Amino acid sequence: MGAPLLPGFKLGQTFFGFNASHRKIFHENIFNLIWYGEGRWDWNTIYNMPIFLRKFYINQVNIKHQEITDRNNKSSNSSKSEIPRAPVTKK
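Above: the chain sequence. Below: its structure as tokens.
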């Protein structure tokens, strides 16, 4: 059986874990890696992945997503140019 608790000794959180706001961000990151990774990873792999690797992949996905967004914006802006039309002559 465990040791008795001393009066006035309140045992709080025993490790530096996530609070509620950190958990939300953590699970959003897992979701985004799975979603934008297009099925390359499963939930367990990302959940158990070392933090430095997870951050690396999140940054890589952000870079690729930004490149795609920039490319789409550039192509949509170039397609809005004037369409050449034949001159209209009056009879």
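Residues 21 and 52 are 20 Å apart (CA to CA).
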